């Protein structure tokens, strides 16, 4: 009888706990288990047991970021997972994760800004009426990931002492001690070796041209120590693909197209990276590094407007020399409006607004890429019509 009474009491208590939302490890849903595992809430003997009320409170406090955790949707409380570069990197094995962070794979905006000028050049170099070479776009995409990673590794090796003094950069792998300088050097060698493998897939002219950019990649991180124009050097480095993309497709550079395009890319970098630098201007002053944000200060918007005019002028010249057509120039007007809106609405004293404007340049670059493709397809159509007209005229002459 005592045993039966105890059993009944335990059963009643268990049912009460379920009624009030308590749970044990075996009753966790899969999403709760993944969340707990992600946040390191394992105890020595297994998962901790919390009530569903406690879990909801934990989520409502914003402990889990929207890009790395399950979140409630507005429809029936269902949970969904968001997939992002940061999520993938944060989910990587512990020995690998610091190296992925060193490459900035969790922040792909830099890779986009390095890659997009390459796509412009590849698209401009395509034959009239043809889409850009998909193989080249893929090859340059791989190269952009590797070379951006190599550049970030070099930057962090140079800036280890500076990064420790800035809250935003103190957690970077080298500054935090997760990766030593020797380990970073070996990793850099691996990235450059793979980058060389990509480069060797191109023609000899492009191999020599690509190798010439290494001096810029290595020296750029030092520029912030000696000049207020490190963004200019970054522009010279990041837009080298405007030269390389054309030569990879055509065998050599057509300088009447490539130089104006390169110039426009440099101006574009001065725009977006000056905006980016305004996020860090207070920390830059503290640690003693320079930037165009500190050079321009309250005169930033007039400077950015001047860079915009120069950028658009270069794109017009490149388009004329490449015999681009109406869709290209229509997109250029949209690009000009996009940049004007960025500059007009920019608040240089709000880091979150600077970041928002900075990342919007990926869409601007993609828009220009699509405009070049549309213009090239239109060019092919126009040439076909001209050939048909010439053929008709020749036929009429023969018949007469």
Automatic annotation (TrEMBL):
Membrane topology type: Multi-pass membrane protein
Keywords from the UniProt entry: Isoprene biosynthesis, Membrane, Mitochondrion, Mitochondrion inner membrane, Transferase, Transmembrane, Transmembrane helix, Ubiquinone biosynthesis
Predominant location: membrane
Highest taxon above the source species: Eukaryota
Family, as annotated: Belongs to the UbiA prenyltransferase family.
Descriptive protein name: 4-hydroxybenzoate polyprenyltransferase, mitochondrial
Protein's gene: COQ2
Subcellular localization, as worded in the UniProt entry: Membrane; Mitochondrion inner membrane
